[in-house]
Amino acid sequence: MKTLVLNSGSSSIKYSLFDLNGHNLLVSGLIEKIGEESSRHRFRLHNDAGNSDNNDAGITIADHRQGLQAIFTLLSERQAIARAEELFCIGHRVVHGGEHFRQPVIIDAEVIAQIREMIPLAPLHNPANLLGIEQTIEQLPQVPQVAVFDTAFHQTLPPHAFHYAVPADWHKHYRVRRYGFHGTSHHYVAKQAAAYLGRELNKLNLITLHLGNGASATAIEQGRSIDTSMGLTPLEGLMMGTRCGDIDPALPFYLQRSGQLSAVEIETALNKHSGLKGVCGENDMRSVHRKAENGEQAAQLALQMYAYRIKKYLGAYYAVLGHVDAIVFTGGIGENDAWLREQCCANLSALGIDIDTDKNAHIDNDCAAINAGDQPVAVLVIKTDEELEIALQAVECVSQPTESHDHNPA
Questions:
Q1: Does the annotation flag 214 for ligand binding?
Q2: 308: helix, strand or coil
Q3: Which domain of life is it from (predicted)?
């Protein structure tokens, strides 16, 4: 059962081909700098032993149509897909589904129209996601195509968690509310945590921490997201690589008056020049650590701020849940930064949270427990796989009876 996953960006297409009969990744790749002279196609061919053949080549890609053609040509030439009929379905990552979509959905004209309606909520992402969808349908109209939304997992937030304390008609007229993001990753690692613990997900309370260049925390009660740190946009919440996270809402107005900065300048600064980068000039956590180890105070401050913000959310979500079975670290930083994990969990033994230093320093598989053995709260490090989760959700969606494909359940 071969399933292709596509993540179309404004100038890139990321893809993965799975054989879900064995959850095997067959091919993964990235076409980047679409429309530029320096376009590149990087891809890996994976085998059953877990090894891969890496390839990196310059290629002229004028637009997304050519990019998709290059992907399909590669898959055919490398005999990953001999003909379109071998594809069970194609899963598309879509960043924002608003309140329309609580689950994956088979794409039709109405779905495309509703995704387009969400563009004001995700102007940098949804147009690119749509472009990939429309071009793929044009080239492979006979293959079922499924939209999987980053926001869908968080549509279980209760009203007291998703509403902002702003004029009520802002929600009605402008759709202002907390949506949350990284839902595919939070959902995937929550299921992996349940499997590792030998428990049913709907009986677990978890705090999941997706920490990469973008970062978010989620409180999961009996398998359902009930609060999450990102809000109307991915800007709210934890400190991130280039995003500021939580700030005083009056800050932009102050900068407009006192600094004569425009709304566009402020928005760009808060999204692209803040977070770790704003504090110490680096948004790669490895570089921040190197600078901190060399005594650079700005980098040391950035690390302290980053860990402190996470710890605040840990405490807040512990209070919201009342009882926590496990804390999950995931994402590029969450999976690889032992120092950060230790700092986030330090001095929390009164809450049943304590890390075993040796276990924390030696993570040797995709799911590992690093908590001290006598503590009631498991602390897990789980490698996320958003592409596999999209593939699984897409297959489940296509396999369901037709009447279950209602994409407007609210």
A1: yes
A2: helix
A3: Bacteria
